[in-house]
Amino acid sequence: MNALLFHNCNLRNFGRLKSVLSPYRTKNSNLLHFKRHCTNTSTNSSKCLDSTKGASLIQKIGIGLSISGGLFSFSLYNNNVVLCKSRISQNRLAGYRTMSDKDAKFDWQKFWSYLEPHTWYLLAAILGTLIVAILNIQIPRMMGEVINVVAKYSNDLAGHNKFFQDMKIPAFKLIIMYIAQSTFTFFYIFMLSKIGENVALKMRTDLFNSILKQDIAFFDEQRTGELVNRLTADIQDFKSSFKQIISGGLRAVTQILGCAASLIIISPHMTFITLLCVPSVIAAGTFIGSKLRNTSRTAQNQIEKATAIADEAISNIRTVRAFAMEDQENELFRKEAETAMVYNEQLGFGIGLFQAGTNLFLNGMVLSTLYMGGYLLSTNQLSAGDLMAYLMATQTIQRSLAQISLLFGSVIRGLSAGSRVFQYINLEPNMRLRGGVVLPTEEIKGEIQFKNVTFSYPTRPDQKILHKFNLMISSGKTVAIVGSSGNGKSTIVALLERFYDTDGGIITLDGHDLKSLDPSWLRGNVLGLISQEPVLFGTTILENIRYGKPDASDEQVEEAAKLANAHNFIKGFPDAYNTIVGERGIALSGGQKQRVAIARALLKNPSVLLLDEATSALDTESEKVVQTALEQAAKGRTVLVIAHRLSTIQNADIIVVLHKGRIVEMGTHEELKNLKGYYWALNFQQHEDPPAG
Ligand SMILES: Nc1ncnc2c1ncn2[C@@H]1O[C@H](COP(=O)(O)OP(=O)(O)OP(=O)(O)O)[C@@H](O)[C@H]1O
């Protein structure tokens, strides 16, 4: 089971992997298993290339086209990189299953629903693009007319007075075309950007909304980085691909067709000769292009590897500093970055060679066109203007073909990015955020009952955490749950919060099945959760407390802070309630953070308070202050306390001792002490002294 979580890792990465995974509840037993498994498993990075075969094939055609066009601008496609997760992330974060790209399908219907409100803008953009393309086809011919006039007067010195007159019309037409071309270029780019930004905004907000409403089990499996990537890189990729396809694609195709027709009209002879060179160039270009793409992919993967190391070191800077690991991290990063540099140098060499070869070929082609054209010119089969128009049309076709080759990459990138985004947008959670019975607040007593509850985490269905668990927490009472690590204490809180649903049995609040109640109402109005690691947002203390009840007044916030024993220390800050707490509350001490979190939970005046090891991360001094705050907060509420330090729960009405998901002892502190069973043993472990009695 753990093997499933930690496949594809090797021992060398184990140390680092462990540190990455540590914030994600790596229990001791799992780590041991994990280590054993890592030792036996070799790294496998080649798999990730499979999914990109299709893309690669299409890209090859793309490169071929680019070369056939003769512009020879080599384009590196990173779509494989986008599709393929880096090896380092496979190794380090193999415990997180990403949704398979294979399952991701591009939802055309949904895409159209985003596009539909902008249909007029889209039509305008398409029209603008077509007009620009048609103008681009006309410009070489018009330029040819201008050249013809120039050629005519270059040999006729006597007639130079008529030059301006003859030049007037073609030059004027050309100016008009240039102005129109610029105007419509601005127009369609602006239109497309308007559509792109609007569609991207809608996709982004829908995606974020969908992610936020997913079951907690979903987050157990997904990597945060992966989700953030969907919101940023994928949407960005999709947006730019969309714009490129409409503008570049439409323009390029029209220009190729139009200019090809122009070429044939100007000189079928020369067109035929030009076409003869194309197949061999396509073959050579495809071959070199595919080699360069491979190097590019390897280099990109290597860069990702180096980035992952930097990312990890920077986000865990305190651990790095505490272990004085700066030099090692530096060295690790340098090694990976150096390897990336080597690949990039190889790539640079290849691109240089490719570019040099293409330039040579291009110039050769221009020269042979001039050679051939010159001959036709000398035999009066072609005018100077026609030759110029021919050259310009060839250039336009080359540029358009190069653009299309780039577009193949864009299409693949855009479709795969879009598919992934739609996959997440369309994902329906099992548990809805809203919907269900809402009880009148004044009638809530806060009586909780677990009846025959059985539960396994969705990610580990074979490991039963609770087996036919029964517990009654009467209204207004304080019940403490104790037991050694990994016995399922926090799971009980998670079930009450409905982060997960039970597999069997039911949990009730005042006799109502939790599953029948509106989950958001339950979490927002009935339950107040304070956990071991309070997470604050990087804003002011005021806003952090108000997170508990967004419509609370400043006075209510202060009231809650007073109840949480936080008011005095907050007032002691120069900016008082407007003090910025820093990222994740870094600028506050552990005890202060916890009291802000308590105030936040109390602001909603919950009937049931859930304290999941709320003081266990604190030193004795802070623990006392927070404990006092909690005791004060507990008055008049039903409280479920989970505690490691037994000294903090001695006054609880009932203490429940949990062992392997079952209740093994239950009673008051005195009763359990006298039993000399599990509770007594736990006490003994903590004090290394058997408790008196
Ligand atoms: N999100 C999760 N996905 C899968 N398994 C989990 C998850 N959270 C906890 N577990 C597993 O469930 C079991 C019970 O965990 P739980 O956190 O409830 O124990 P606990 O008694 O609160 O432990 P501790 O006192 O160390 O916090 C453990 O074996 C743990 O590894």
TrEMBL record:
Keywords: ATP-binding, Ion transport, Membrane, Mitochondrion, Mitochondrion inner membrane, Nucleotide-binding, Potassium, Potassium transport, Transit peptide, Transmembrane, Transmembrane helix, Transport. GO terms for biological process: oligopeptide export from mitochondrion; potassium ion transport. Residues 448-685 form the ABC transporter domain. It is a multi-pass membrane protein. CDD domains: ABC_6TM_ABCB8_like, ABC_MTABC3_MDL1_MDL2. One of its GO terms (cellular component) is mitochondrial inner membrane. The keyword Membrane applies. InterPro entries: AAA+_ATPase, ABC1_TM_dom, ABC1_TM_sf, ABC_transporter-like_ATP-bd, ABC_transporter-like_CS, P-loop_NTPase, Type_1_exporter. It is found in: Mitochondrion inner membrane. The chain crosses the membrane at residues 120-139, 171-193, 248-266, 272-290. It holds the Pfam family ABC_tran. PROSITE patterns: ABC_TM1F (PS50929), ABC_TRANSPORTER_1 (PS00211), ABC_TRANSPORTER_2 (PS50893). Its main location: mitochondrion. It comes from the Eukaryota. Residues 123-413 form the ABC transmembrane type-1 domain. One of its GO terms (molecular function) is ATP hydrolysis activity. Belongs to the ABC transporter superfamily. ABCB family. Multidrug resistance exporter (TC 3.A.1.201) subfamily. This is Mitochondrial potassium channel ATP-binding subunit. The lineage of its organism: Eukaryota, Metazoa, Ecdysozoa, Arthropoda, Hexapoda.
